[in-house]
Design a protein that fits this description.
By secondary structure, this protein is mainly α. The protein is elongated, with a radius of gyration of 47 Å.
Length: 248
């Protein structure tokens, strides 16, 4: 009996060995090498990742923009969407309602700037007059002499008013603003001409200087046309002074 048992054990061992030798060994097989991706395949995979991400971002942005508000904030008939247009007349807004208001606001800002400029010139005149009383006008520079001339134009041509003159007894705000703009245009052009060599005395004696002084008597209906004509004459006369100074 023991002999038969030993024989059966030996047979089982031999069978198991034969099966183990017959079974294929997967671990011993060589692994297949992966081929590198081509440029077209890489682009294709990138598109498969990027395009869905872009779609998700777009959908999220549209949702944030057009998402309905909560039930408490919804107005009847709006479906929860924001349909309110900006109101130009609301407080704490910098939007101008219409073109007329925008023009009026721009004109008021320009008038305020010209007013401040005129006050500064008149203040400078007072300071320069003290120097003139001490050492004389000839001691001033060309810039300061021109400042005195422009301040005199402001006092005599703009601030003084003739109650017996029909056009000057009552002057519209637009005409006053036009006259002040003419004076400051003369100042700007005259300073450039003096810097280019023109004499201050010759600038003060130009014929256009008298036309600016008579602008108060111009009817309001034709003040714009006269202002354009004075501006053109101003440019021509000052350019002539500069040309003569260069050829002298």
């Amino acid at each position: 009996m023991e002999q038969t048992k030993n024989e059966t054990k030996i047979e089982n061992k031999t069978e198991s060995k034969s099966e183990s030798t017959a079974a294929p060994d997967n671990k011993g097989k060589p692994k297949k090498e992966r081929k590198p991706l081509t440029e077209a395949q890489r682009l294709k995979r990138q598109k498969m990742i990027v395009l869905p991400a872009m779609v998700l971002v777009f959908i999220g942005a549209m949702w944030l923009i057009f998402a309905p508000s909560s039930d408490k904030e919804q107005q009847p008939g709006t479906g929860g969407y924001n349909i309110e247009m900006p109101d130009a007349d609301k407080a704490n807004r910098q939007i101008i309602g219409d073109k007329a208001k925008a023009y009026e606001q721009g004109a008021m800002e320009e008038r305020q700037e010209n007013r401040n400029r005129a006050m500064h010139l008149l203040q400078e005149e007072n300071e320069l007059n003290e120097i003139v009383q001490l050492v004389g006008k000839d001691s001033l520079s060309a810039h300061d002499q021109l400042t005195l001339e422009i301040a005199r134009m402001l006092r005599e041509d703009f601030l003084q008013q003739n109650a017996f003159e029909g056009e000057d007894s009552y002057t519209s705000l637009e005409k006053q603003h036009t006259l002040m703009k003419l004076i400051f245009a003369f100042e700007d052009k005259a300073r450039r001409a003096v810097a280019d060599g023109a004499d201050v005395e010759d600038v003060s004696n130009l014929p256009v200087r008298e036309r600016i002084g008579r602008f108060k008597a111009v009817p309001s209906a034709s003040c714009r046309a006269e202002a354009d004509a004075v501006t053109a004459a101003m440019t021509a006369e000052l350019d002539g002074l500069v040309a003569r100074a260069r050829h002298a």
